[in-house]
Design brief:
It is built from 2 helices and 9 strands, in the order ααβββββββββ. The chain is mainly β. It has one domain: Peptide methionine sulfoxide reductase (Metal Binding Protein, Guanine Nucleotide Exchange Factor, Chain A). A 6-stranded antiparallel β-sheet has the order 3-4-8-7-6-5, with no helix packed on it. A 3-stranded antiparallel β-sheet has the order 2-1-9, with no helix packed on it.
Length: 144
């Protein structure tokens, strides 16, 4: 796994109370970003997007991924093979749903983004697939 793995439980740089998060986010955004939910596959805004640009955290606007690392994995969610910077995300073990996975969190606000999978023969330079919920992201097209 990349060097972004971190079990750091320190407070995030962008820290709001639960009430402030509920005021800031829509109910659907809150369910995914703050409660580690998952949007349904193939319905997310960025699943099939090919627009070039930067994907930012919808909760705090931190830069997370770049379109140059996005690829079609046919999993139903936007997939990336590397974060914009190894310090952009925190990777944390997730044993929910009766399986062992690696959860991806925004380092800046600790919001849930999705999961990363590795070593499954993905056609990427890193052999990784960051499977990210569209609702966790905001795409800022290049030149804007």
């Amino acid at each position: 796994m990349t060097s972004a793995r971190d079990t750091n439980t320190d407070r995030p740089a962008y820290d709001l109370t639960d009430e402030q998060w509920r005021d800031k986010l829509t109910a659907a955004e809150y369910a995914v970003l703050r409660k580690a939910g998952t949007e349904r596959p193939y319905v997310g805004e960025y699943t099939d997007t090919t627009t070039e640009g930067v994907y930012r955290c919808r909760a705090c606007d931190a830069e997370l991924f770049r379109s140059t690392t996005k690829f079609e994995s046919h999993c139903g969610w936007p997939s990336f093979y590397d974060p914009a910077d190894t310090d952009a995300v925190i990777l944390r073990e997730d044993r929910s749903m009766g399986m062992k996975r690696v959860e991806v969190l925004c380092r800046n606000c600790h919001s849930h983004l999705g999961h990363v999978f590795e070593g499954e023969g993905y056609p990427t330079p890193t052999d990784q697939r960051y499977c990210i919920n569209s609702i966790s992201l905001t795409l800022v097209p290049d030149g804007k």
